[in-house]
Amino acid sequence: MNTITTIALITGAYKGIGLEIGRQLGKQGVTVLLGARTIANAERAAAQLQEEGITAIPIELDVTNSEHIQAAATKIESEYGKLDILVNNAGIFLDHEGNNVDVMRRSFETNFFGAFALTMALLPLIQASPAGRIVNQSSILGSIGIILSDESMGNASAPAYTTSKAALNAWTAQLSIQLRGTNVKVNACHPGWVKTDMGGPNAVMEIEEGAETAVWLATLPSDGPTGGSYHKQEALPW
Ligand SMILES: NC(=O)c1ccc[n+]([C@@H]2O[C@H](COP(=O)([O-])OP(=O)(O)OC[C@H]3O[C@@H](n4cnc5c(N)ncnc54)[C@H](OP(=O)(O)O)[C@@H]3O)[C@@H](O)[C@H]2O)c1
User: Which of 14, 23, 141, 227 is least crowded, fewest Cβ atoms below 10 Å from its Cβ?
Assistant: First the structure.
């Protein structure tokens, strides 16, 4: 069992911002476990990062699948005995499918319940780390204050996405309170509007830049913040 290497698990990590978070952490010498809903996608992403000299390990992890979550916890426990960094990056945007309870439920299943269930299953392993870091990949659209006060944001008509990310934000604050006085920090992250399959080609930020906030939060020093929401090292309002 290797307890010296820093171990990170990133969900939704075979493409987009998640893969880039894996790359940037890997280049810092972190062993990165790349979660994807299918093992084929995880393996392809891990092979890509391995070619760049990174220690990348594929892991089958649909965050809505409790068996995948349990298997991931068992694997990390037996192989590493701890988890230093968890980046809850997996996310979906379904509002183009309609404004109804099915879209709302499915959005919450991934964006909120998935992150919640995985984190709770892994929390003992994160607490076994000398410096546990949990990063919840949220969105500025989850900030109630911002969508009410900024018209350009308020016009973003995405009730399922915004409420599921707002729930993720509220729980981030709750978890930080529970973890006060421990070695574990938990923060919410807004990556920016990033050119990915979700962000689309008109987004203003390249993927490399979009990963930077999460990587900063994942590698915070012991005097770094906890219980906040951040973009580019600046605190956002809830
Ligand atoms: N791009 C932006 O402008 C932007 C802005 C604010 C916040 N964000 C957030 O940033 C995160 C990453 O988004 P992205 O822009 O990189 O989008 P993306 O390229 O669409 O990537 C999303 C990733 O999440 C995965 N995923 C979805 N449901 C999952 C599940 N149940 N279990 C495991 N993985 C699942 C996807 O896998 P599949 O392909 O298999 O579904 C994919 O790998 C998301 O949480 C998103 O809400 C993005």
Answer: 227
**pTM more than 0.85:** yes
Answer CATH for 7-235 from 3.50.50.60, 3.40.50.720, 1.10.1740.110, 3.90.79.10: 3.40.50.720
Evaluate: CB of 11 within 6 angstroms of ligand 1: yes
Q: Is any ligand 1 atom within 6 A of the Cβ of residue 193?
A: yes
Is 161 considered catalytic here? yes
Mean residue pLDDT of the chain comes to 95
Q: Which residues of 66-102 are buried (b: 16+ CB within 10 A; e: fewer)?
A: eebbeebbebbbeebebbbbbbbbbbbbbbeeeeeee
Residue 145: the pLDDT is 86
pLDDT digits 0-9 by tens, 185-194: 999 999 999 9
Residue to mutate, 9, 17, 137, ligand 1, most ligand atoms under 8 Å from C-beta: 17
